[in-house]
């Protein structure tokens, strides 16, 4: 084999990689793989908490990958629970955003492999919107109400849309008018969390709402379906605060956008829908994710007695003689 002049092969210094540089490499990988900015922003936010933790412990920001051990991981979990005063389920949500970068470092050999686990917590089902709350939220605004009439009418349409489709707030903000096919009765989602397009059907009630809304909204096929009063894409905070004000004016003091998704999933099953269809509507890759949204209470489960095999077996109404 001929020698190549002017080039010397060197060993990669696995210990010389700063953790923040590893994370930057991971973000570039995410960008190359088409991971959404929403997801990568979540990773970056947890890094801020991690470097706050290092500062709290008196550790330099020049933190190397080889220094990240099982102890660091466990101590960080305790720190965010105690210092940030968050629940166990929130600790786990933070950790889930940190572990992809850890796994990446382990994969490349910069971080020594160690098993990590989440905090065990008592699972608590989140209450969905009550029927009384939904009736107040779904009541159409009065045409005599001149207080920012378009925003009020738009927010009414948005709540109908979220409850009628179960889509994410992020997906709703990306919708264009052209994504809504009223003739076929379908919403075509092209900007989704997992980057996989999907379709959701438009119910009869939602169809009427959208026809009425579009008459007020106007616009061209390439315009955003739910926009600001100036026709621009709605920022996340504008959407959230708009729904907060809308709900409070109606005497409803729960106004989580994501709670509409939970409510859709639960009511879909109560009305006889199946979990396979629900999984597709919600855009989940696994049934485990779908089950997280289910909030079946005792009354719902009691209905399962109609399918109990014991009640289906016919037994002769005669007593057996004991031996």
Automatic annotation (TrEMBL):
<keyword id="KW-0238">DNA-binding</keyword>
<dbReference type="InterPro" id="IPR025269">
    <property type="entry name" value="SAM-like_dom"/>
</dbReference>
<dbReference type="Pfam" id="PF00589">
    <property type="entry name" value="Phage_integrase"/>
</dbReference>
<dbReference type="InterPro" id="IPR013762">
    <property type="entry name" value="Integrase-like_cat_sf"/>
</dbReference>
<feature type="domain" description="Tyr recombinase">
    <location>
        <begin position="124"/>
        <end position="306"/>
    </location>
</feature>
<dbReference type="InterPro" id="IPR011010">
    <property type="entry name" value="DNA_brk_join_enz"/>
</dbReference>
<dbReference type="GO" id="GO:0015074">
    <property type="term" value="P:DNA integration"/>
</dbReference>
<keyword id="KW-0233">DNA recombination</keyword>
<protein>
    <submittedName>
        <fullName>Integrase/recombinase XerD</fullName>
    </submittedName>
</protein>
<dbReference type="InterPro" id="IPR010998">
    <property type="entry name" value="Integrase_recombinase_N"/>
</dbReference>
<dbReference type="InterPro" id="IPR050090">
    <property type="entry name" value="Tyrosine_recombinase_XerCD"/>
</dbReference>
<dbReference type="GO" id="GO:0006310">
    <property type="term" value="P:DNA recombination"/>
</dbReference>
<dbReference type="InterPro" id="IPR002104">
    <property type="entry name" value="Integrase_catalytic"/>
</dbReference>
<dbReference type="Pfam" id="PF13102">
    <property type="entry name" value="Phage_int_SAM_5"/>
</dbReference>
<dbReference type="GO" id="GO:0003677">
    <property type="term" value="F:DNA binding"/>
</dbReference>
């Amino acid at each position: 084999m001929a020698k190549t002049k002017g080039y010397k092969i060197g060993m990669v210094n696995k210990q010389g990689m700063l953790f923040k540089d590893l994370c930057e490499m991971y973000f570039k990988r995410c960008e190359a793989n088409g991971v959404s900015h929403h997801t990568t922003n979540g990773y970056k936010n947890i890094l801020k908490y991690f470097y706050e933790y290092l500062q709290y412990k008196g550790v330099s920001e020049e933190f190397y990958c080889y220094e990240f051990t099982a102890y660091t991981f466990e101590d960080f979990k305790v720190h965010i629970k105690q210092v940030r005063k968050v629940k166990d389920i929130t600790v786990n949500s933070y950790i889930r955003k940190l572990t992809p970068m850890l796994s990446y470092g382990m994969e490349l050999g910069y971080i020594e492999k160690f098993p990590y686990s989440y905090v065990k917590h008592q699972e608590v089902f989140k209450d969905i919107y009550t029927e009384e709350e939904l009736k107040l939220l779904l009541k159409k605004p009065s045409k005599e109400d001149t207080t920012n009439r378009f925003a009020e009418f738009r927010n009414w349409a948005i709540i109908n849309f979220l409850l009628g489709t179960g889509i994410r707030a992020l997906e709703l903000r990306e919708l264009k008018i052209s994504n809504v096919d009223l003739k076929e009765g379908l919403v075509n989602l092209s900007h989704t969390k997992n980057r996989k397009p999907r379709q959701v059907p438009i119910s009869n009630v939602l169809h009427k709402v959208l026809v009425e809304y579009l008459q007020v909204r106007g616009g061209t096929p390439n315009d955003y379906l739910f926009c600001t009063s100036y026709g621009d894409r709605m920022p996340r905070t504008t959407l959230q605060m708009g729904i907060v004000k809308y709900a409070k004016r109606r005497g409803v003091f729960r106004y989580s956008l994501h709670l509409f998704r939970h409510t859709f999933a639960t009511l879909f099953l109560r009305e006889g829908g199946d979990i396979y269809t629900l999984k597709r509507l919600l855009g989940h890759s696994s049934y485990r994710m779908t089950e997280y949204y289910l909030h079946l209470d005792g009354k719902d489960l009691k209905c399962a007695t109609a399918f109990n095999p014991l009640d289906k077996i016919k037994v002769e109404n005669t007593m057996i003689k004991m031996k």
